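Shipment paperwork, digital attachment
Item: protein structure file
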Amino acid sequence: MIDPRHSQLARNLTRYSTDLKEGERLLIDAFDVPDEIIVELIRAARELGAIPYVNLNHARVNREISLESTEEALRIQSQIELQRMKNMDAYIALRGSHNIFETSDVPAEQAQLVSQVMKPVLDWRVNKTKWCVLRWPTAAMAQQATMSSESFEDFFFKVCNLDYARMKKGSEALAILMRQTDQVEIKGPGTDLRFSIKDIGAVPCVGTHNIPDGEVFSCPVIDSVEGVLQYNAPTIYQGVSFDDIRLEFQKGKIVKATANNTARLNEILDSDQGARYIGEFALGFNPHIKEPMRDILFDEKIAGSFHFTPGQAYSEANNGNKSQIHWDMVCIQRPDHGGGEIRFDGKLIRKDGLFVTDDLVSLNPDKLIGN
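Attachment content:
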């Protein structure tokens, strides 16, 4: 029996998130997810007259391929996948995970090789197609969130089937403000950070590219970042878990980085020249997401959070930084996580995780969830 929440999610992804049109080609990229949601996506796409294609992935198989693939083998795979992507108008990725640490034993240099060679596929998908990416609820994710399987599944569909249109007005007001801003100051426990976002631009994200969603992102002027940032949300990158990441900046560059796994952290930040510069600054405000669960598609949208991302900049808000990595690291500023303030050109915009100006208070949780 098809879960009606699956049907609703499939309709949201095809009608709202990717806005499929008749005759458009859709690639459904499925990673360890139930057949039922794939079937619902195929049906939802066909109802709109679109043409669905499916690519099935399995984490254990992908790990095995990654472990010993040569650069030549990866380049052939990249060419095949890039040609397929060039034939697509839209892309929906459903990413399940039975074991979030499945790739933890892939050597760092091998993981970097895979990322580097496959990057043209990612760039084409991000810049040339209508795309949306979401996780899928699994027992592993429920464990990450320290919730029962049933409770986590209810939480997942509440978050993913949120009426994202309610965020549009407030997020556009925030984007306009960020486009007009020069200097940003962020303060909190262990954090004293300053940078410019002048002439970079800002993009509201309300359910069209990531599910769950709820953020507005910009990017620092590449050499403007100064100070120190103490992240308080755990993170996983390249299959490795990190806690208590602390970064120090001078003239935009990360000059010191520490964490519970300082050696591996610096290995990743040394992947290439751009990895030690910031490619994204964003404010998160999804009202249903409150606590980190080591899944970045959820954690970067936490209500009252911001993320500050080493690596590749997005073309829509671009400071020119290029890198094979894009590592969203999250800091939560609600009082239960230590509080904090964000100022734009000296004006207080958000305090202890809540927006304080009249045009932005609609992004606070009580407004987004309220009747």
